[in-house]
Amino acid sequence: MKKIVVWVFIIISAYIAVFGGEYSVLQVRKIRQEQTGLKKQLDELKHENDSLKSWVQKLEADSATIERLARERYGMILPGEILYRVAEPRDSVENFQNR
C-alpha cells in the first residue's frame, strides 16, 4: 500500500511538472521559443537602426545628396530654375500597357 501511494505521488508530481502551472516544462519551452524569436527580431531592428543612423550621417555630411533627394522625390527646384514636366501622350501609355 505504501509503495502505491509513493508511485501515485511520483506520477502526480511528474504530471504537474510537465503540464501544470505557470512554470511547467511545456510553458518554459514555449517562453524560450518566444524569447528566441524576440531576440532575432531585436537583432534585425538593431541592424535596421544602424543602417538608418548611417543614412542620417551621410545626409548630414553631404548636401548634394539632400539636394538630389529633394529634386527627385519632391520636385523641388532652386530659385531661378524652371521645372519642366514631360507627360507622355495618352495613346503611347495605353499602347505600352497593352504589349
List the helices and strands and how they pair.
Elements: H1 2-19, H2 25-61, H3 63-74, H4 90-98
Protein architecture, described:
The protein is elongated. It is built from four helices and no strands. The model has no long low-confidence stretch (mean pLDDT 85). The protein is an all-alpha fold and 99 residues long.
Strand content: under 5%
What would the average pLDDT be, to the nearest integer?
A: 85
Biggest sheet statistics: none
Radius of gyration: 33 Å
Structural features:
single chain, mainly alpha, 4 helices
Summarize the structure.
The protein is mainly alpha-helical and 99 residues long. It contains 4 helices and no strands.
